[in-house]
Amino acid sequence: xxxxxxxxxxxxxxxxxxxxxxxxxxxxxxxxxxxxxxxxxxxxxxxxxxxxxxxxxxxxxxxxxxxxxxxxxxxxxxxxxxxxxxxxxxxxxxxxxxxxxxxxxxxxxxxxxxxxxxxxxxxxxxxxxxxxxxxxxxxxxxxxxxxxxxxxxxxxxxxxxxxxxxxxxxxxxxxxxxxxxxxxxxxxxxxxxxxxxxxxxxxxxxxxxxxxxxxxxxxxxxxxxxxxxxxxxxxxxxxxxxxxxxxxxxxxxxxxxxxxxxxxxxxxxxxxxxxxxxxxxxxxxxxxxxxxxxxxxxxxxxxxxxxxxxxxxxxxxxxxxxxxxxxxxxxxxxxxxxxxxxxxxxxxxxxxxxxxxxxxxxxxxxxxxxxxxxxxxxxxxxxxxxxxxxxxxxxxxxxxxxxxxxxxxxxxxxxxxxxxxxxxxxxxxxxxxxxxxxxxxxxxxxxxxxxxxxxxxxxxxxxxxxxxxxxxxxxxxxxxxxxxx
Length: 485
Prior knowledge:
Number of helices: 9
Number of strands: 38
Shape: rod-shaped
Largest sheet: 18 strands, parallel
Oligomer: single chain
Helix content: 25-40%
Structural class: alpha/beta
Distance between the termini: 82 Å
């Protein structure tokens, strides 16, 4: 096909190079302004991409352009593009539009543009925006990218605070999403996205303070989600109902909601094989793992936030932190919840530390105390001191032994008086008499045969009352252990 009329020199070079896929170099740097020898109209690129010129036999047609100043809108929406597109160090004056198009490989490397619209785009190859500066939004809702998404070193700045810098609801990426060393201001939305080759965001900074920095609800990631090694989120990371069939890592990253009252990490109802929640500094803001299912959790007390919600969380293995740290871990919810303590106790029991499991149960009952009314709280203290809520029954025997020693000493010094003639009564024994007072039943016949006198009478009353309390506490504690809920 002959060249259309009105082409400038740069456009003629591109028209000539297209059938063989040769690269047209107009300059090695990105033009700051409309230099006459670098101007290429987007209309010409669009016509080539949509098949106005055919490939040379034995060659692969492609638009490969470096250092161009592209005027007008590059718009192939709804079209079928058989040729590859490579724009390197180019300046696009208007937003590139590929909505609902079917294309081959697309690469915008080191370019500057006011946005990219790829809603419903299907790419048979990779889509690369690496090294580019985008002063607007990257929209990829419902897009399907078979060869991977590359945004390494990309800088994206949303045009308004209420807009998403990168929006990819229901996005499907088959060969991995690589968004490393990027700086994105305005937040990223991957709700319902599917990353079949992993998500890699090492050393990337997401800036959206007071708002959501990353919204990835219901996202599915196969293999690995690396929000780690220099990753920074200044805003909320929301992974509610996400599923990661592999590792979700925040190792050496940073989570900062910019407001302690806001969520730094909202990760409830997740399913994850392995969670590495070990950023380089303490998490600023609240963290929710409510009702998530995680096989392995690796974290550390140094990074735990002040408020941590664990109700409904289930796990198979914990790594990081000592026993006392784990007690602090489950107590960071502002509202008392039974399940985190039960889960932690069950885990210690499962790894053979029954003694630690009992201590967790004790901590659970003590934490529950603050939710009770004054009378119940007082009885809670009695159960704690006397039998350890049934988890430390030896305490009751210790109290019993101490009271038995006190009573034996007292009644050895101040003998009770007999209530009947001496020849009709068993011989008095201070130890046996004290036992009869402590045990609610008149087991040895001494309590009904002798009556304490003077000041020792009050000791006897105290022993009887204490005996009833000990027995009641022991029964209540045993019932609580057998039916903890």
